[in-house]
Amino acid sequence: MALKTKPFDIAEHLKTAEDIRLFLQEVAATGDEADFIHALSIAARAKGMTEIAKKAGVTRASLYKSLSEDGNPRFTTISKITKALGCKLSIA
């Protein structure tokens, strides 16, 4: 009997605001800029792209484009998305 697997999607495991905050903190501490943008995309999917787009004041399409693999979001966009996720950027 063959073993059945499915792809792991961390967005399915980010259930609370605390989960999202800890996930983004870890990626910020251990990854690079591209990793952080990818993590924002995962967190936005977990929370709901439409909801995050509304809270960030951007269209859903521009949110997808900004957080895509080829996206190059401005700092203001990253800041708005971070706030929409219930987090804030800080320097320690």
UniProtKB/TrEMBL annotation:
Specify the HTH cro/C1-type domain's residue ranges: 49-92
Q: Which InterPro entries match?
A: Cro/C1-type_HTH, HI1420, Lambda_DNA-bd_dom_sf
Lineage: superkingdom: Bacteria
Instruction: Tell me which CDD domains the record gives.
Output: HTH_XRE
UniProt xrefs under Pfam families? dnstrm_HI1420
Q: Which GO terms describe its molecular function?
A: DNA binding
- Protein name per its UniProtKB record: Transcriptional regulator
**What organism is the protein native to?**
Desulfolithobacter dissulfuricans
